[in-house]
Design goal:
The chain is of the alpha/beta class. It has helices spanning 7-13, 16-19, 59-69, 87-90, 93-99, 113-120, 125-134, 164-167, 233-244, 262-288, 293-299, 304-307, 319-331, 346-357, 360-372, 376-388, 393-409, 414-429; strands at residues 22-25, 30-34, 41-45, 50-53, 77-81, 104-108, 171-173, 176-181, 184-190, 199-203, 208-210, 250-252, 259-260. Bound molecules: zinc ion.
Length: 436
């Protein structure tokens, strides 16, 4: 590491100190567990019992957070409310059911909408893409953090290892609910954004809002490259504003450290809201001007003050991918250019382009030059043409792997870094010489 690190890697590594374990006392009644697993979860303490907001990502770290809580209070944990159905907020629930088998687990109805939509379409590829996005298959030295939490441990998929009945919601509500348990009163309200089953939790007594994954210290993941149904960005903007309208004194987010102080929360939510609305509105304007996604990603940018703001850096989500998601979410796959209604097969196009260039050998040497000249994206695109023709595939795979590594090391968005590094690793795992 050290001096040869890219600017992106240095910026990510600087986050490490804020992403470690931190058991915070936010108010006299609210404790927040950060860095216990990959997500943030909380405990709200009443006179006779405790209600948790989210369960963390894995039973072990969640049990350790509960042990930390026990240094402050012996009251029973009577309830648990999920902000949404993602496993990084639910799989820790085993630690809670072990504490109290009778615990009330609250969630909105329907719950787990995203996973269900993928399962319904037998979307098995999302597992592989998910492992790439989270870097599960990468050696530790290729990972820094997730930008909003510690990196996911190698080999730990967190998927399918938790008995479903131990974490399943037992109390369901339609659009909103008041949870009254052990002297704790929590208002829970549907707040679609990252998922359709997202809610926010409001603890009026201490003016603390729990935003789930609609907000954290990064540009949000308006599109997950593992592949998910459209996350309605207009809903997301409105959901951020719904929390903002309450003018909370404390804001606890689904990942990263909470924010305290009415002024600090107000500024943070203003920045987040303005950033999201800006990208959404600029994309919609561009769509209506007839621009294609490829053109829009070159144009839609945050204003400088927002782009530099630590809450909107592209650590986890990415603005270009958000723009593409808005386009396809609103209009579907067709970019509007009739040429693209029925384009050539990639192999056919590649052969014609190679013919124009003077043969595929020219593309190989151009790809080598491009990579050496710092144009890794162009090198990767040339490699794709060659692979489409199946031209010297072992050599071209190695070249493409180098190009993907180069793109990864310069990318700030951790999901993209992991995806690029993993695909490079996959390419190198294929035979290194062509069979003759
Ligand atoms: Zn999450």
């Amino acid at each position: 590491m050290g001096g040869s690190e890219t600017a992106a890697a240095r910026e990510l590594r600087a986050l490490d100190q804020s992403l470690g374990r931190n058991f915070l006392r936010l108010t006299d009644r609210v404790f927040v567990a950060c860095g216990y697993g990959v997500s943030t979860f909380s405990f709200v303490v009443g006179d006779r019992g405790i209600v948790a907001v989210d369960a963390g990502s894995a039973p072990g770290p969640s049990a350790e957070a509960i042990a930390e809580l026990r240094r402050h209070t012996d009251l029973p944990i009577l309830g648990l409310v999920y902000t949404h159905g993602h496993i990084d907020h639910t799989h820790g629930a085993v630690a809670f059911t072990e504490e109290n088998p009778e615990i009330e687990i609250w969630a909105i109805k329907p719950f787990g909408t995203e996973a269900r939509a993928l399962a319904r379409n037998r979307s098995s590829i999302t597992m592989q893409r998910s492992l790439r996005q989270f870097g599960n298959l990468l050696p530790p030295q290729k990972k820094i953090n997730t930008g909003i939490g510690p990196s996911v441990a190698a080999g730990n998929t967190s998927l399918g290892i938790v008995p479903e009945q131990r974490i399943r919601p037992r109390k369901r509500f339609e659009t909103s609910a008041t949870i009254r348990l052990g002297g704790v009163n929590l208002e829970v309200t549907h707040n679609p954004g990252e998922t359709d089953d997202q809610v926010f939790v409001w603890f009026e007594r201490d003016r603390a809002a729990f935003a789930g994954d609609n907000m954290y210290r990064s540009w949000p993941n308006l599109y997950a490259i593992r592949g998910t149904p459209y996350r309605d960005v207009r809903d997301w903007c409105e959901s951020v504003d719904r929390i903002r309208a309450l003018r909370p004194d404390h804001l606890v987010m689904g990942h990263s450290l909470p924010i305290s102080g009415a002024d600090e929360v107000s500024e943070a939510m203003e920045v987040y809201s303005r950033g999201l609305w800006h990208v959404y509105n600029a994309t919609i304007e561009g769509i209506n001007a007839g621009k294609t996604p490829d053109e829009l990603v070159a144009e839609v940018r945050l204003p400088d003050d927002l782009a530099a703001h630590p809450l909107l850096r592209e650590y986890y989500g990415n603005i270009s991918w958000s723009v593409r998601a808005i386009f396809s979410g609103v209009l579907g796959w067709f970019d509007g250019n009739p040429t693209n209604l029925d384009p050539l097969h990639p192999a056919d196009r590649a052969r014609r382009i190679a013919g124009l260039a003077g043969g595929p050998e020219v593309l190989v040497s151009d790809a080598i030059d491009a990579l050496a000249g710092g144009e890794a994206q162009w090198a990767a695109e040339l490699c794709d043409l060659l692979l489409a023709m199946d031209f010297r595939p072992a050599e071209v795979r190695a070249l493409k792997a180098d190009a993907l590594d180069e793109l990864a090391t310069n990318m700030l968005t951790t999901t993209g870094r992991n995806y690029l590094y993993t695909c490079a690793q996959d390419l190198r795992a294929l035979p290194a010489v062509d069979s003759t």
